[in-house]
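Example record

Each entry pairs one chain with its bound ligand, zinc ion.
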Amino acid sequence: MRHVALGLLIGGMVLAGCASVGGESAPQPTVRSGGIGWIDAHAHLVGGRADQGPDYWGAVEAALAAMDQAGLRRMVVMAPPQVHGQPALHDSDGFVSALKRHPTRFAFLGGGGSLNVMLQEAAQDTTISDRLRRRFEETAAEILRQGAVGFGEITAHHLSHMAGHPYESVAADHPLLLLLADIAARHDVVIDLHFDLVAQDMNAPEWLASPPNPPLLRANLAAFERLLEHNRNAKIVWAHAGSDMLGHWTVDLSRAFLEKHPNLFMSLRMGPGRAPQNHPLTPARTIKPEWLRLLQDFPDRFVIGGDQFIASPSLRGAGPGLVFSQRAPATRERTRAFLDALPPDLARKIGYGNAIRLYKLKD
Ligand SMILES: [Zn+2]
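Structure tokens for the complex follow.
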């Protein structure tokens, strides 16, 4: 049964595997391509250092090979939320030409290496100058002109998990984030937001190195709600649902936020994070009942956002992108297990249809 559900969702490649194992006749694929069919709406390309001529063409080819193997029809790629001075600092303009060779397989968001950098630089400011506002607006407009389907990856709170991986923190209702919400609303595009939630002040857990992470993490939930309320036409995709780091992003909190904030969406990352109690899958890879109820009650508000890092095979070294890229095959495999464990209708929405609608991809 679990194989049939997966076969329905992702079609040909897996059906072939099913048939050879079970010897049963293949169910008809229900996605129009008749072939592969899930979408990862949050992925990253690792091309290398900006000063060494990064290789995004190689990363795109590697992504395609992985996608074909995993039954992944499309990816929405974006630069991670970066800060000034990172050696591999890049934004979507670095990889857009490589992506455009495969317009049916990729879409992209922009701003992780530009808008987010400006935001983090202005973190301490409670007001913004006209000059900064103009520069931010022009950058956002240029990103959309290049074909981005939204802005990302942007962050208001990003924990550092290793050397070279930045700690970033700004008020979620910072004037530049409110401005970005207005721009996104005006163009009807999404904002992909990385936001490590702190429901109340807490000491940083022992596994978080300090510095760069501060010893005390300040509550940031109220400011996030102000961002969500600021412009209800701004669709905000809260990245890494189900892969909570600090233990505060519970199913109950997701439910309350989805009820209260109709412009909030979530992308699901299939790693247990540091708070496995808030992860959808049990160790046996069944869906926890409270998660299934949440997904069934808000079937249009979730997409898959694997946070896969796909590196160019020509890259050598040990930066965070390369370290994360080693986890991508396991992420794809866990994502398939997750989709397979869902009722087929819900799997088709979360695995495919919601992303088509939210990111306005051509079906
Ligand atoms: Zn992220």
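The chain has 13 helices and 13 strands.
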